[in-house]
Amino acid sequence: MNKIILAAAAVLVAACAPKTLEEKTQEYQNKCDAIIETMQNDFDTVAADSTLTDAQKTERYSQIEDKACEDIVKVSSKTLSRNADNALGIEALKSVYYLVSPEQLNDLIAKLSDENKQDEFVQKLLKNLDAKMATAEGKMFTDFEIVQYPDAEDKGTVKLSDYVGKGKYILVDFWASWCGPCKKEIPNIKRVYEKYAGENFDVLSVAVWDDPQASVDTAAAYGVNWAEIVNAQKIPSDLYGIEGIPHIILFGPDGTILKRDLRGSSIEKEVAACLGR
Fold first, then answer.
1. How far apart are CA 127 and CA 55, in angstroms?
2. At what angle do helices 102-111 and 54-82 cross, to 10 degrees?
3. N or C: which end of the chain has fewer CB within 10 A?
4. How many Å apart are CA 199 and CA 204, to the nearest integer?
5. Cis omega before residue 150 (within 30°)?
6. Residue 15 has pLDDT above 90, yes or no
7. DSSP secondary structure string, the chain?
8. What is the pTM of this model?
9. What's the average model confidence in pLDDT over 101-122?
């Protein structure tokens, strides 16, 4: 009987023993992997459903991806809270910083220990977060100036304020020639430009993080026939907290930032709504 009691006690002690950081990290990874696996299985189910139109499938894919992102954020937020003072807390933050709003990101960083807040990655996030908050929807635009390309000696400098804040709605596309998703959005932007450009609306492309001649050549190949700022490099992305491209922003006639990170059909939807179409 005593042996049974001792054995049971040993099991209880083992169950109550704190998990190592390695065990907690693996548990977190397993949860994230399970979410991704579920998402992929759901994608496959939709793809195999012959009763759905392509448009319906696209909508379902978006819903599935949104749900997966939401679940990843929940798991990561809980993991961060429980590991605010160790490396797993920072790893959890790295998994979701690009999935949450600036306000949510600020809340997550606030949960970290003072020591973890000094981590190089976290400090970079904080700097980027300040830029995002300063250029959030509803804020006035932040101007920048660059040397235009090509033939900089003749072209001189160009400013964002040469286009934004001049009485028109301006759709600004931050992009690069090497960026596949950027090039995928160009036809969407072109359609909106051709349909709405005029007295109250215009489009501007700003090439960032790119070889300037490649920007010029790719824009020409894709039929970009609206205004361009070339060779902006990191200047706009640092000011606007842009971490990935394309990043498409709609500015109001007075320069107010109306919408950030527009994609696909939402581009025309927002432009049409602003123009009362």
1. 39
2. 20
3. N
4. 15
5. yes
6. no
7. -HHHHHHHHHHHHHHHSPPPHHHHHHHHHHHHHHHHHHHHHHHHHHHT-TTS-HHHHHHHHHHHHHHHHHHHHHHHHHHHHHTTTSHHHHHHHHHHTTTS-HHHHHHHHHHS-HHHHTSHHHHHHHHHHHHHHHTSTTSBPPP-EEE-SSSHHHH-EEEGGGTTTSSSEEEEEEE-TT-HHHHHHHHHHHHHHHHH-SSSEEEEEEE-SS-HHHHHHHHHHTT--SEEE---TTHHHHHHT--SS-EEEEE-TTSBEEE-S--THHHHHHHHHHHT-
8. 0.77
9. 94
**C-alpha separations of 2 from 10, 15, 16, 169, 198 in Å:** 12, 20, 21, 81, 89
* Banded pLDDT at 138 (limits 50, 70, 90): very high
Tokens of 42: 């759901």
**pLDDT confidence band for 10 (50 / 70 / 90):** very low
User: Which residue, chain included where needed, has tokens 């908050």?
Assistant: 133
CB 208 within 8 A of CB 242: yes
